[in-house]
Every structure is written in C-alpha cells, then in structure tokens.
Amino acid sequence: MTQAAQSRATQIKPRADGTLTYLVDLPPEELPPVRPRDLSAAWDAAREAANEAAWGTPRLFRFIRADGSRTDLALADPDASCWASAVDGTVGIGSSYGLSVCLRLLALVDLLAQAPWAKPLVTVRRDGAAIDPAALQAAATQPLTAEARFDHARFRAYAAANRLLSAGDRSQEAANDRGARQ
C-alpha cells in the first residue's frame, strides 16, 4: 500500500449523544500493516486507560468499499471504547494508519480471549498483561478480515511457523484441529 493510502483521512462526525462516527473509504481488510512499536505503545496506553477507568466514548465505523458495499462496526462496550480512546490519544485514529493500529489491537485482544492456543502469547502479571513481542509483530502485519478481526487459523499458522508457540502448544493445536474435523 502506498504512503498516500496509509495516511488517508477518515471523516469523523460527532453525534449529539457524544458518539463518534467514522466514515472510512476502504474496507478493514485493506487497512495497512503497522509498526509493532506503535501497536505496543497502543497496548500500553490502553492498559493504562483501563486501569484508570477512562472509558472513552462509543465509536461507530462505516467502511465503504469501492463497489459501494460496506461494513459497519460499533465499539459501544466500555472496554472497547476505552481502548479505542487510548489509541486515539497515542497515534490518532483519524487516518487509515491510526485506525489500523486501533483495530489490530482490538482484534488481537479478541483473538487472545477466544483462542485457547494463543494463551502462551500473553503473560498475565500483577501489573497487567504483557504480549509476546513476536505476537505484536504478527498482529502488526497479518491482514484483518472484512469484519476487522484476525483470521484465527492464519494467525495460528503464522505463530507456529515463527515459533511463537512451543512444541507442546503445537501438539495440542494439532490435536484440537483433528478433534474439530471429526
């Protein structure tokens, strides 16, 4: 993707209730890859905002494809609003790059919450959770789906190929795959 496409502005329209609506002229799957350090900074800012209960404002995104079709995404729950607000405060989400950082962070959190095989990619400590730097690299570069998520199978394959998962995790992953196919 060209630098011009990466920095494309997004129209932001505030609503009377405080909700922010973003009109984005490309679909989530075409958002650019990001720098892992920006994703890491967004993760840290989001954790800090959550610890401070800085919940942020709800945000609505309308992604418009060249053919006129669209994907709508609502970040209305307090956690997602908090994280989006924190990312907006670090890299801004008014450009396709900043929006990509935000959605990749939320997609990574979603993946970590839903995929048992991803458990080794995060370490929970007393002061919060830490994500393996290689997992941040994967999240920074793997494409998003049309629903602004990561394809779990593709992310898992990347993690396995790049040794983000231990041999035991890969064995369990293979067993889970066999069980899912039966």
Written overview of the protein:
Strands 1-2-3-4 form a 4-stranded mixed sheet. It has a two-stranded antiparallel sheet with strand order 5-6. Strand 2 (20-24), helix 2 and strand 3 (59-64) form a beta-alpha-beta unit. The model is unreliable at 1-7 and 167-182 (pLDDT under 50). Helices cover 47% and strands 16% of the residues. Helix 2 crosses helix 4 (96-114), helix 2 (36-51) crosses helix 5 and helix 3 packs antiparallel against helix 4. It is α+β, with helices and mostly antiparallel strands and 182 residues long. It has one domain (3-181). The protein is globular. The protein contains 7 helices and 6 strands; from the N terminus they run H-E-E-H-E-E-H-H-E-E-H-H-H.
Q: Topology of this protein?
A:
Elements: H1 3-6, E1 11-14, E2 20-24, H2 36-51, E3 59-64, E4 70-75, H3 78-90, H4 96-114, E5 122-125, E6 128-131, H5 133-141, H6 152-161, H7 167-181
Parallel strand pairs: 2-3
Antiparallel strand pairs: 1-2, 3-4, 5-6
Task: Provide a brief overview of the structure.
Helices cover 47% and strands 16% of the residues. A four-stranded mixed β-sheet has the order 1-2-3-4. Strands 5-6 form a two-stranded antiparallel ribbon.
